[in-house]
Structure formats: C-alpha cells, structure tokens
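User: Run a structure prediction on this.
Assistant: Running it now.
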Amino acid sequence: MSDTFDLYYWPQIQGRGEFPRLVLEAAGAPYRDVARLSEAEGGGIEAMMKRMEEAAHPPFAPPFLVQDGGLVSQAAEISAYLGERLGLAPETEAERLFARSVALTTADLVAEAHDTHHPVGTSLYYEDQREEAVRRAGEFRAQRMPKFLGWYERVATTNPARSGWLVGPAMTYADLGLFQVVEGLRYAFPRRMAAIEGRYRLAIAIRDRVAEHPALARYLASPRRIPFNEDGIFRRYPELDGD
C-alpha cells in the first residue's frame, strides 16, 4: 500500500474535512490536501470534482480520501479508516465499534450545528432565513448542546479504562472529533460555551489534552489549520448566541 493519502475537501473552510485531517496530522502521516494544491501539482477544486465524477463508487460530497485507487467518503468513516490504520483507534473489536459510534454521533452534532444558521435550506443565504435561525439556535443552545456535551462527559466517565479518554486507554480519532466540535462551538457560541462548559470537566480536559499533543500543537499553530470563518459549518453570528 502507498504511504501517502490524498484528502479531498474544499480549500477555504475547515468543515467536515477537518475531522480526518486531524487524524492525519496527529499520526504524522504523509498526505496531500489535494484541493489546496495548485493545478500544476495536480490539485485544485476542478481536480477534486473530476475525481468525484469519475469514481467507480462516487461520494455524495467531499470530504473523501483516496489511497492506492481506493476511495473512502464521509468524515466519520474516513476518520475511522485512518484511525484504525494509523494507531489512533482502540484495539478490541467492541471498543472499535464504539469509537465508530462516537464518530457518527459527532457527525450528528456537526449537522445540527450547521442547521442553526441554515435551518430552512442550504441553497438560501443566511439572511434569507435569519428569523428561523434565531429560533433554531435558541433550541440548540438550550437543549442540544447540553445533551451532546453531557453524553461525551458520560462516555469519558464510564470508560472502563479510566484513562480520561473517550474510548480505551489512549487517544483515538473519537477524541480528535470531540476536540474539533468543542473548538467549533466555542467559535460559534462563545457566550453559551462560557456559561456551560464548566459542567463538562472531563470532556473539556480531553479537548485540552488533544491540543497539547505535540504533532497537533504544531499543526494548530501552522498555516495548514484554516481559521474558522462564516463560510464553514461553525459560524459566528452574535444574534444566534446567548447565555
């Protein structure tokens, strides 16, 4: 098998592509962020779209990963695929299956966070659905954020390994996903997170331990880490935030 992975995702946002990207960075794996490369390097958005169109098993949308001609799509599936091959997954079958469940639950949270600013339709501008977004974000802040963060807290608390991580005795791609959603929620809902994150001591401690991981600390301080912005999944609109 080739040692190099090709990750395909939109070049201007973190989005869902950041979840497998964090796994690649934490593992120190060689990879190409194809859409961020120049056309001369075989990259760019057109190269990404062409690969999607020509795939024998076409992905619905980016992100997708290509290695040795094989293609894996969906952020949670890619993260599991990489984690299990790069030493960032639990060892037992039961724990591996549960880590996948954690990643899929994280994907649910990401979808709900996106829908706070686009509750009516993705084809509409935010300004066309602002009233609905304010209502949706209020419910998300009051009900869904505590439910998801409380679940992560429970998972960390009941981990039989008593490691402080979500699954098993060491950091896995599931923990990287938790790190990313905490960062995203802090960006999009800073007032709400400041008010409630003290309730989730273990979940926030996982976020902090991930940020201190040497390879990830280097990545987070580098230009490879695209800043959050109002084109991505987590967007900061002050009228959607609150205590």
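Strands lie at 5-8, 31-33, 64-67, 70-73.
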